[in-house]
Design a protein that fits this description.
This protein has about 240 residues and is α/β, with parallel strands linked by helices. The protein has ten helices and eight strands. Strand 2, helix 2 and strand 3 form a beta-alpha-beta unit. GO terms for molecular function: hydrolase activity.
């Protein structure tokens, strides 16, 4: 394998329809386990979520197993997700991009379960945001702002209790993909009085950005591109 390339989780796609049998899903998970890999399961319906939770309860979960999207998460399934040690990668940008469409197309009973974020974090399920580009907005600053306000294009809020703080949104982007469980620790560090010293220390690789306003403030204000300088390995590669 080329230098710098690592083997990550095995992607398993559970479609909106035509779900695999329990035996087929268990075999897919077993295939990942034979090479020591966790699984990343694409899951956008409650039926798919129930299926994967039952399968993982039989195969056993390992660190790094995660649910991609978790578009519909009924409250009664959250304890199982927590007990299995799963992480969730959600897409609040979908709400900002087409939330009005969800309010029209999704069954009314499922609206409160859409793209949960705060409830999962509070329950002990590590949850981070991503873009899922090109299907959602690629700009991470937009995605993080959407995680705070959860407003659709028409201005209506979808899941007010699922709003997170700027620190929680940013922490999700700062966590290494191999350790999404660090999201709580990183969020706490961002809120600490000495967070800059904690996040940037001698001997670290100097992969840094400089923003025109503090990052948490930029997220809260919804700034589209607050970055004025980017540094990679100590070398400035772009600046405003």
């Amino acid at each position: 394998m080329p230098k710098g390339i690592t083997l990550g989780a095995l992607k398993i796609v559970l479609g909106d329809t035509g779900l695999p049998s329990m035996a087929e899903l268990i075999e897919e998970i077993a295939r990942a386990r034979r090479t020591g890999r966790p699984v990343a399961v694409h899951c956008v319906t409650r039926e798919a979520l129930v299926l994967v939770l039952v399968a993982l309860s039989q195969t056993g979960a390992i660190p790094g197993d995660r649910i991609e999207h978790a578009a519909i998460v009924p409250l009664e399934l959250i304890p199982s997700m927590r007990d299995l040690g799963l992480a969730v990668v959600t897409q609040p940008g979908f709400l900002g991009h087409r939330g009005d469409q969800y309010l029209t197309d999704v069954e009314a009973a499922d609206i409160p379960h859409l793209y949960r974020h705060r409830t999962l974090l509070d329950a002990g399920v590590p949850t981070v945001a991503s873009s899922d580009a090109p299907y959602g907005p690629v700009n991470p600053w937009q995605v993080m702002h959407d995680a705070l306000n959860r407003r659709g294009p028409d201005g209506k809020v979808i899941g007010v209790d699922e709003r997170v703080t700027a620190a929680q949104a940013l922490a999700g982007y700062l966590c290494p993909p191999s350790n999404l469980t660090a999201v709580h620790e990183v969020a706490s560090t961002l809120l600490g009085s000495d967070h800059r010293r904690e996040l940037v220390r001698p001997t670290m690789e100097a992969d840094l950005i400089l923003t025109e306003s503090p990052a948490l403030e930029a997220i809260e204000l919804g700034q589209k591109n607050p970055v004025v300088m980017t540094m990679i390995e100590g070398r400035v590669v772009s600046h405003a």
